[in-house]
Amino acid sequence: MPDSPQTPPLLQLLHWIAKPLDLLERSAQRYGDCFSLHLSRSPIVFLSNPQAIQEIFTAPPEQFDSGRANRILQPLLGDQSLILLDGRSHQQQRRLLTPPFHGDRMKSYGKLICGITEQVISQWEIGVPFSVRASMQEISLRVILQAVFGLHQGQRCEQLKQLLRSVLDLTGSPIGSSLLFFPIIQRDLGAWSPWGRFLRQKQQIAQLLSAEIQERREQPDLSRSDILSLLMSARDQNGEPMTDIELHDELMTLLVAGHETTASALSWALYWIHHLPEVHQKLLKELGSLGDSPDLSTVTRLPYLSAVCAETLRIYPIAMLALPRIVKTPVQIMGYKFEPETVLAPCIYLTHQREELYPEPKQFKPERFLKRQYSQYEYLPFGGGNRSCIGMAFALFEMKLVLATILSRFECAIAGDRSVQPVRRGLTLAPSDGKWLVATSQRQKAKIPVQV
Q1: Contact 147/112 with Cβ under 8 angstroms?
Q2: Which of 352, 391, 384, 383 is nearest to 369 (CA)?
Q3: Among candidates 256, 262, 263, which has minimal Cα distance to 209?
Q4: Which one, of 94, 15, 37, lies nearest residue 386 by Cα?
Q5: Which of 118, 113, 111 is closest to 446 using CA atoms?
Q6: What are the angstrom distances between the C-alpha of 99 and each of 19, 261, 263?
Q7: pLDDT tens digits, 334-376
Q8: What are the φ/ψ torsions at residue 218 (nearest 5 degrees)?
Q9: pLDDT tens column, 289-336
Q10: Is the pLDDT score of 449 beyond 70?
Q11: pLDDT of residue 451
Q12: pLDDT tens string 174-183
């Protein structure tokens, strides 16, 4: 087993919850590319060398169990979530879930994304600092509700929004995140207790999702193009549809993973763009070159906008780790032999901080992505192998359109000398909250006209 800090496992876990980047960097500085941390019953091996990551990502799927390695998410997502499945079940569900997030079907959501962004940012008041996270979460939540469910308004839509926000805010701080890491405190002590409140809110979400599924089954509409309708009409290789439980758990996965992560990425991007005047000016110049009627593909192919999004996801990746894998049969990686039941965690954050790949890694430099093409083992904000995020293309598409719409509508600035730092939010990394951005003026060109 690779070297590990000598501090007691409980202290390592508390350090991981409260200051994960500090623990990762200290461990890497002392032990190198491969080290282990005692964060659960079994030690977890962290790897950040691209060669080691390539060996993991390209190994036969039967070499590892990944669903079993991510049981920490089971209370939130359910047993049938794609993230928690292994083997043939995982392959079948992934095959059914992938098509809606690619190609022309994904592009059809472009006008939706721009329209929702316009609606949300129209509420910003000139000169009044606002919560970037709250605005970005509202945009991404509306996008996912409309793209996944086709829900534009109504009581069910509003209830889902409120409940999802509440459930995710429960683990929205290092202290709240402890609920995920300590099963002993996952006890229902009534509606007033954190876990009791979580279970009741999750049950309310389940009832809303079940009602929507039932309504669709009773009143099928072949003209609908939302993802729920597509999933309900999908069939596996045996001609069987997804069960209600499978639909529920996959919908929860899409709702949670599809908006919380994008909201954090957009918040970070807005911070860096307005923190660094030269980045801001280069983006405005590029957007200004679009002309009066750019189409979606032109906007999303802009080189500097793409580089800003890439660098945003490099410097503070939303997921610090790719989905961990549990070794099933003995495997040798980078000279280490790992026995069955060893947990391997490709570390996205440490890989993205490697000096030989990213000179001055603490500096935000979009230009690095204009000068060099990185491999999927050197740059991996969406994980990799057979466990890469199925929503990667959709997330980048949404990110670019939201940022382009905001920048074409408002001139903004960092409010005062507010400091924004990376903090744990559940299992992800997010910018610290607060009202740290202010709209200083509204541009005459109100929006990017989008032609689909």
Answers
A1: yes
A2: 352
A3: 256
A4: 94
A5: 118
A6: 37, 20, 23
A7: 889 999 999 999 999 999 999 999 999 999 999 999 999 999 9
A8: -80, -30
A9: 887 767 878 899 999 999 999 999 999 999 999 999 999 999 999 889
A10: no
A11: 42
A12: 788 888 888 8
Query: What is the residue type of 441?
Result: S
| Alpha-helix runs per DSSP H in 219-276 | 227-233, 244-275
Q: Has residue 53 got a pLDDT over 50?
A: yes
Burial of 118 (0-12, 13-18, 19+ CB in 10 A): middle
- Alpha carbon distance, N-terminus to C-terminus of the chain: 54
- 63-90 CB burial, b ≥16 within 10 A, e <16: ebbbbbbbeebeebbbebbbbbbbeeeb
**Cα(20)–Cα(174) distance, integer angstroms:** 10
DSSP string, 99-149: GGGSHHHHHTTHHHHHHHHHHHHTTPPTT--B-HHHHHHHHHHHHHIIIII
Q: Report phi then psi at 166, rounded to 5.
A: -65, -45
Rounded to an integer, what distance in angstroms lies between the CA atom of residue 301 and that of residue 104? 15
Contact 335, 347 (CB under 8 A): no
Instruction: State whether CATH 1.10.630.10 applies to domain 9-442.
Output: yes
Domains of the chain, residue spans = 9-442
pLDDT at 384: 95
Task: Write out the two tokens for 228.
Answer: 């729920």
Answer for the pair 342, 42: CB distance below 8 angstroms, yes or no: yes
Give me 107's structure tokens. 């592009």
Query: pTM for this structure?
Result: 0.94
